Amino acid sequence: MATTLEKVDVVTVGVGWTGGIVAAECAKAGLKVRGLERGSERSTIDYSMAHDEYRYAIRYELFQDLSKETITFRNHRKMNALPMRMMGSFLLGEGLGGAGTHWNGQNWRFLPYDFEIKSMTDEKYGSNKLGKDYLLQDWGITYDELEPYFNKFEYIAGISGEDNNPFWGKRSEPFPTPPMKKTPILERFETAAKNLGYHPFMLPSANLSEPYTNPDGSAIAACQYCGFCERFGCEYGAKSSAEITVIPTALKTGNYDIRYHSNVVEVLKKGNKVTGVRFFDTVTGEEFIQPAEVVVLTSYVLNNAKLLMVSNIGEQYDPETGRGTLGKNYCYQILPGASGFFEEQFNTFMGAGALGMTIDDFNGDSFDHSNLDFIHGASLSLTQTGMRPIAFNPVPPDTPAWGAEFKKASIHYYTRTLSIGGQGASMPHKENYMSLDPKYKDAYGVPLLQLTYNFTDQDRALHKYLSERSAEIMKEMGAEIIAASNPLTDYDIVPYQTTHNTGGTIMGKDPATSVVNTYLQHWDADNLFVVGAGNFAHNGGYNPTGTVGALAYRCAEGIINYSKAGGSLAS
């Protein structure tokens, strides 16, 4: 029998960036907040031995235990969905800080075009540019409306950057810290891009260029350029993450506490209100009820959607009829690009997760799509993230995959290979969605989330076009051998591609086409909020974290207003 705990004002399900932001803002406003985290506590001190590629990057020390909970996957509805038994295409975070602990630190604001994509696309290209099977919709909020929340997140995280990109939205303030070092590798990309008439700029980075103290008093150190960012926690405290910023802010108010090893399996609902959540202690197996005035789902995209589904909150999307919104508009990300093989050597083993230069000349609607069979595009970047020896073995095309010739080429090109990569936008399609698996369950008897997804004609056309543009830049950089990315075929759950999953709990102004309103408040329960990249109506040409952070601050504002006044918020 479940033990009922003392009621709190706000409970968050997950303690990463979104859970930490909501907790910090609500606790500062005087609300009693409890965070439920199914993983363990961790902090900067735990990463003193972080430079262990095998432990963290290969054996996934910081990630979800797939033997307890995973997802099932299929390309289409007629395919048999099977469980993902090992980490593959994307990496699911777990523990204090969530996926924000092991991110690279690339921090973007989605473009003004993204938030009004259907209206702007229809106006410029007509309503049939992509066809009826693509589910384009506006987000219900504009870039200008979200800009103050972007600014808030960047100043809390201390983002390093420069405001000289002619294609992104206007900023109310400059970046809080200057850009990272412009290395010889990045200078080469910059020169080539300018020679081709493009507009390169330093990538906005949460690996800070200098020591910084944020408005809440949290100190963030300067990056050491060690090259161990993605899949690793930072032992210097130089990569902005929730556990060195917003979580300490929340804790020092005295209005916040965290329960670790607490796996939430159900949101409890009565009428048009939720009453709390049910969870298990993953160590003792004990079952608990946590009552709360407000419940906030702040876990990863997939888990937020799954919790709503198993709790029977909202209408599940049906691709056959088009009815329902929960699970709809799942999008991934397209990764065009090109690699170049040189005869001169570079210090590719050094770097940082967000050390790079980018062009947005082919992102959003920065270029004319009238004669192209796709919309949107990608940020094209050359990043110097630090190439680690186990997972990084670049060789030119037609090199044998094993044997003496492979070994020779691998050693030779380890410090002679540079790559341009694009974070390509993904448009929602009626056949790409999330649902509950009818067969497989997790360790707690809860159905697994089922992912139905495949690349579309839009994805393939975008990928081909931008891989060709990447190869042109690489040629201008002077590469001896150039290899553009292979054309897209069917999506596969392996190998790793990106953890930038979006959709499933989309936001908007109309409950007929969205799960939550523009304060991330659920249409069917006014004291339930759901925040994360699941709110995106499509995926853009950037990393999602900066936009997620902005939405979390808007969500926190909505919770505080709701708690003060009660009743529904205006959408």
Based on the model shown, name its key terms:
571 residues; alpha/beta; FAD/NAD(P)-binding domain
Could you outline the blueprint of secondary structure elements for this entry?
Layout: E1 3-4, E2 8-13, H1 17-28, E3 33-36, H2 53-58, E4 71-74, E5 82-83, H3 112-115, H4 117-125, H5 143-157, H6 184-195, E6 201-202, E7 212-213, E8 219-220, H7 246-251, E9 256-259, E10 262-270, E11 273-281, E12 287-297, H8 301-310, E13 337-341, E14 351-359, E15 378-385, H9 404-413, E16 417-424, E17 433-441, E18 447-452, H10 457-476, E19 481-484, E20 528-530, H11 545-565
Parallel strand pairs: 1-12, 2-3, 2-12, 3-9, 4-18, 12-20
Antiparallel strand pairs: 4-5, 6-14, 7-8, 10-11, 11-12, 13-16, 13-19, 14-15, 15-16, 17-18
Keywords: FAD, Flavoprotein, Oxidoreductase
Family: Belongs to the GMC oxidoreductase family.
Protein name: GMC family oxidoreductase
At the fold tier of CATH, the topology name is FAD/NAD(P)-binding domain
The overall pLDDT average reads 96
Using the coordinates above, name the CATH class.
Answer: Alpha Beta
Question: What's the architecture in CATH terms?
Answer: 3-Layer(bba) Sandwich
CATH superfamily: FAD/NAD(P)-binding domain
Strand content: 15-25%
Count of distinct structural domains: 1
Shape descriptor? globular
Structure classification: alpha/beta
Number of helices: 11
Low-confidence stretches: none
What's the main sheet like?
Answer: 8 strands, mixed
Domain Glucose-methanol-choline oxidoreductase N-terminal: 222-329
Organism: Ureibacillus endophyticus
Keywords: FAD, Flavoprotein, Oxidoreductase
Family: Belongs to the GMC oxidoreductase family.
